[in-house]
Amino acid sequence: MEEQPPSVPQIVLPDGWNSISPGSSSFLGPVCEGCGWDGDPLGLLGGFGYVNLKALCRRDCIRCQIIALLIETIIRRKREHISYQSCMCFFHGNHIVFVGQDASHFCKKVFLFTSTHSHKTEVPRGIPSSPPERIDTSTDASLLWAQEQIAGHQHCCQPVGADSFVPTRLINVDPNSLNGDVALDDCAPTGSRYVALSYCWGRKTQPCQTTSLTLPYHKKRIPWSTLPKTIRDAIDFTRKLGIGYLWVDCLCIVQGDKEDWERESGRMFDVYRSSYVTLAAVWGKDSNSGLFSSSEGFKPILLANLCLNNQSWPLYMRRYHEPISSQYLSRTGKYPLFTRAWAYQERLIPPRVLYFTAGELAFECFCHSACECGLQYSDLAGHPRRILFEATQTPTKSIGPRAQSNEIAFRNQWLRETHAGIDGDQVTWSSRLTDSQKAWWGMVYRYSCLDLTNVSDKLPAIGAIARQFQTVRPGERYLAGLWSGSLHRDLLWYTRGVDCQRLETAPTWSWASISGFVDPNLGPTDEVILSVEVLDATCCYVDDNPFGVFKSGFLTLRGRLTPCWLREHLRDRVLGTVYHWRSGLIITSDVRIDVLSKVLSCKLLRRVYLLEVGRGAGRNSRERYLLILGRKSKVHQKYFRMGILIFRPDLWFTGHGKSAGSMNTALDRYSPTKTITLI
User: Fold this and answer.
1) At what angle do helices 341-348 and 460-469 cross, to 10 degrees?
2) Which phi-psi region, left, alpha or beta, contains residue 644 (left: φ > 0; alpha: ψ -120 to 50)?
């Protein structure tokens, strides 16, 4: 039961509150000097505005009455030392923020609502409605809420051509004559609606999988008793939605069949992008956890009774929380699904996602998010899902998977096809990233710290997102996690941890060849003169699909190559020291090694080569951006990436008393131009 003040105040709403059209002059009157409300019911708690609490003077103003009751309740319950003179109030969307102006730095966010179970009639306009304090996501009430959210956003975010795609296999959730069992269907009609499931497998082997042996049996029947609880709950929910098909990876992809997995993993974009809705089991640690949950944590406080037309509605207040969205859930760090790399694109690509959290349902599309408790949020600017949605609205010609040739070759003309500028014989590129470039690296940054059971999935697990970005990067080529239009800049990533391992899932020049956390932020802050030419870039993929499984790739580069020696160490966050004996050059700061040796020794020197990618073009820009390479074959001039460094001669210790200018001269003198292959 909710806690109540000693006596419940009554707030009387004017007649016609629910019947007169929004903005009608019948309600609009003199703007309240205290709270700024103009009398419009829909603006009672909505919008954004500053409230001068010192001027809460109109006793007939409904908003003033509500704010006064809120302050009195907060003071009484929290024993906060606040007053009208020391507090500001902001109406922001559907919640209210109180901020102290004194040294206490008091801040309180509250959410106001009325119960959806108070009456069968329409609740007063301008007052959000919410379920009672206990929510059980398995109930019909939660189902109805989900149906309303899905129906309200059924077409606004649907991609063009989505109705024509049907996955290779789907689970028929309501086949005839199977007495509740389900079956695998590889002949679903074109245009069939289906639900997709995103969930954690867990560490144990899936109790029910489709393999080459079970495939013919699953096409006839999948016994209900063999299915894990999460999949059973998803089937139940799909049936209640009135949808005939469900896609689940462990059943719709043939497990243990490399050819089938490589083909189907390259289609994840289409699978999730074309789904009617994706169910995300965010709180379960494995497939036996289930979808549904219940919560009693809302504990609303009865603030007042709203009286209208001889009826009353309780006005509650409770602690505000952010509207549940993929960004909010991932920041909390307590949901297992949001630690999984595969699940990252599974929540960004679908047009509609229904999150089953530990306590309530939440819904998210490309432009709106809401949770079952009543909070809603429609401003998703900058949200990764919003960025992907805007990509689909861009009227540009996309390059399909097969249109991107396996043999991606582009000569010197490639430089002029990008956004780089030409200045005489010098090619420059601006350090200012486009929105799509920033968004891509932001997603790579977050994706790289997520967990993968199979490291070979590194590129396929983000392939659907990459394919979406192709829409806003027309004419560019996707190169194993990097893009041709910003290739020089993209090469300047670095690792953030000391426990990273080198993978064979991508070329060494790609961030996808590293098992740990990568960051793109070592790039230039000013205009840069390019020091290396890209003569060739070749990437080969399974099924000619650049967004699927990587097979091989290389870059042919021409630039200054400086032979040096590297000593690895881990001291004061410095990972190594680079020596060039002939010039006396010593670089000891910010030498970033991709993968540290298992045994770090201050006496061990390794032969390395510095390849300059670019140098600062501004008057005060003296940085030089270099890759640290190891040589694999002297005969064929094949090299592999080992790390990166930025040479700032005026800031870094260079040794032997040499000046910054002489160090730059020495570096140029001993750096012959060569053509190399970077693998």
Assistant:
1) 30
2) beta
DSSP string, 54-75: GG---TT-HHHHHHHHHHHHHH
Distant-in-sequence, close-in-space partners of 518: CB < 8 Å, separation ≥ 6? 444, 445, 448, 493, 494, 495, 496, 511
Q: Which amino acid, 4?
A: Q
3-state secondary structure of 248: coil
Distance CA 548, CA 459 (A): 7
One domain, residues 246 and 336: yes
Cα(383)–Cα(369) distance, integer angstroms: 11
**Phi and psi at residue 653, to the nearest 5°:** -70, 125
Rounded to whole angstroms, the Cα distance separating 558 from 277 reads 49
Report how far residue 36's alpha carbon sits from residue 49's, in angstroms, rounded to the nearest whole number: 8
Element (H, E) at 446: helix 435-447
3 state SS of 120: coil
Q: Which residues contact 172 (CB under 8 A, 6 or more apart)?
A: 182, 183, 184, 185, 188, 244, 245
Identify each DSSP E strand in 224-309 by its residue range: 245-247, 277-281, 294-295, 301-308
653, HSE (Cβ side, Cα atoms, 13 Å): 9
Helix (H, G, I), strand (E, B) or coil at 371: strand
Domain end marker among 504, 534, 550: 550
Phi, psi of 89 (to 5 degrees): -135, 135
pLDDT tens readout for residues 178-235: 888 999 999 999 989 999 999 998 877 778 999 999 999 999 999 999 999 999 999 9
pTM reported for the whole predicted model: 0.75
* Digit-coded pLDDT (tens) for 585-607: 777 767 888 887 765 555 578 88
Looking at the fold, whether 224 and 372 belong to one and the same domain comes out as yes
pLDDT, position 462: 93
Same domain as 469, residue 603: no
Residues 274 and 332 in one domain: yes
Cβ atoms 380, 171 nearer than 8 A: no
| Dist CA 233 CA 228 (whole Å) | 9
Q: Find the domain containing 456 and state its range.
A: 413-550
Question: Token pair for residue 95?
Answer: 């919640």
The DSSP bridge partners found for residue 371 are 362
Residue 553 in tokens: 């790739």
- Residue written as token pair 């109705």: 163
